[in-house]
Every structure is written in structure tokens, then in C-alpha cells.
Specification:
about 240 residues, alpha+beta, Alpha-Beta Plaits, four-stranded antiparallel β-sheet, 9 helices
């Protein structure tokens, strides 16, 4: 029984403060949409792939031992790709306004487990520049790895391409607004229960019963003003007669 009453009180509170909850949710969605569409700078992404293999293509070069060696080298290559030895040359060749350390933050290098393919991903405000940086990193690395590692086992598998209609990878306005809606809803519900908890005024007969813990035996109905005036006049007339 107590659980049923608690659920009733819960829904009664939500229904009473529904306007507040809706306003806070709509406000959160609006703010998130404005920030996402107007204030946040769109970021575009470009990716290129390089293949780590042996220079020779005969049967002896494709044995499991050579492939395992290439896989072990990939972890080293992932570090070299984002090193200043590579990025300084990329900045210089493309005449970028950013430094190598700033470019470092725009680059992600990863490879699938037990795969000889390395993905180089670049994010930039300019979609064309993102493509140029990704391809230039791959070409510079392919040249420099011969000097740094004294090996020639890197080939460009797939160069980055600029699509006709580039789409930013972030921000994601729809996702941001969905998160804002959830936050606004939770904030509205929490605030509704807080206001209800802090509101100790007695407004209805149910509030009286809840506060005193006593059953209500009777109610006094409110008297309309028109009837109140008539009643007062009758009382005055009776006093005058008396």
C-alpha cells in the first residue's frame, strides 16, 4: 500500500511541475543547438593507409616470420609517424601556420590487431588541408623510414581523398541536443522534487491529512461573494428588526 501511495505522489508531483520540466528541457535543447550550430567550429577528417611489408615479393619474403617482424615494427612506426622528425618536415613542406606540437594533436595513428595496415587520421577545420596533411605525412614517413630504420617496407595503400561535399565529424548537433534534452529533463525532474520537498505550505485537505496524520471528518465549502453579500444583508436586517 505504501508503495502505491508513493507512486501516486511521484506522478502527482511530476504532473504538478510538468510545465517547469518542459521549459528546462526545451531550454537545454535550445542552448545546445545554438552552441553546436553557431559557436563550435566544424572539424573535418581525412584518413590515409600505409602497408608495412617486405620489399621483396618472393615466397621467402611472405613467410610467417617476416610478417611477425613487420607486426612488431608497426608499434615503432606508430610512434615515429607522430614524432617531430616527421611532423617538422610536414609543417615545412605544406607551409603550415601551426607548429609540430599543434599538428600532433590533430593526428591519430592506429592499426588493427594482427594487421599490417596502419591508419593515419587527421582532423582539421579545413577539409582540403586535412587531406593534404594526411597524404603528406604518409609520403614523408615513407621516405624517412628508410633513413631512420634502414628499411624499405612501407607502401601507401590508400591515399586520402577530398569528397565533393565534405561533412564535419564534429560537432554532432543531433547528439549534443539529445544529451542536452536528457540533462534538461533530469534537471527539471530533480528541481521539481526539490521544490515540492521545500514547499511546506498547506493548500488542500490532503495536505492537512498528510501533515497531521489524522483523518478529515468534514469540509467547509467556500461561499461565493454574491452569496456572502446576501447573507450579510440578511443578518443586518434581522439585527435592525430586533
Amino acid at each position: 500500500m505504501e508503495e502505491t501511495i508513493s507512486l501516486q505522489e511521484l506522478f502527482r508531483t511530476l504532473r504538478k511541475r510538468m510545465k517547469l520540466i518542459v521549459i528546462l528541457t526545451a531550454l537545454a535543447i535550445t542552448i545546445s543547438g545554438v552552441i553546436s550550430f553557431i559557436f563550435l567550429t566544424p572539424i573535418y577528417q581525412a584518413s590515409t593507409q600505409i602497408l608495412v611489408n617486405q620489399e621483396k615479393v618472393d615466397a621467402s619474403a611472405l613467410n610467417p616470420a617476416n610478417i611477425q617482424t613487420d607486426l612488431q615494427l608497426i608499434n615503432t612506426y606508430n610512434v615515429i609517424i607522430k614524432s617531430s622528425a616527421i611532423l617538422d618536415k610536414v609543417v615545412k613542406e605544406l607551409d603550415l601556420n601551426s607548429s609540430a606540437s599543434e599538428l600532433y594533436g590533430q593526428i591519430t595513428v592506429n592499426s588493427e590487431q594482427n594487421s599490417q595496415v596502419v591508419n593515419i587520421t587527421v582532423q582539421n577545420e579545413n577539409p582540403k588541408l586535412a587531406v593534404e596533411i594526411a597524404n603528406n605525412i604518409a609520403s614523408v614517413f615513407q621516405e624517412q623510414v628508410k633513413i631512420l630504420m634502414n628499411v624499405d617496407n612501407v607502401n601507401i595503400l590508400a591515399a586520402a581523398q577530398l569528397p565533393e561535399n565534405p561533412m564535419p565529424v564534429k560537432p554532432n548537433p543531433v547528439l549534443n541536443m539529445a544529451i542536452a534534452a536528457f540533462v534538461g529533463l533530469m534537471l527539471g525532474v530533480g528541481l521539481a522534487f526539490l521544490i515540492e520537498y521545500l514547499d511546506t505550505t498547506i493548500k488542500t485537505e490532503q495536505d492537512v491529512e498528510d501533515s497531521l496524520g489524522l483523518p478529515i471528518l468534514g469540509l467547509i465549502s467556500p461561499i461565493p461573494d454574491s452569496e456572502m453579500v446576501t447573507t450579510n444583508q440578511t443578518i443586518v436586517q434581522r439585527r435592525n428588526r430586533g
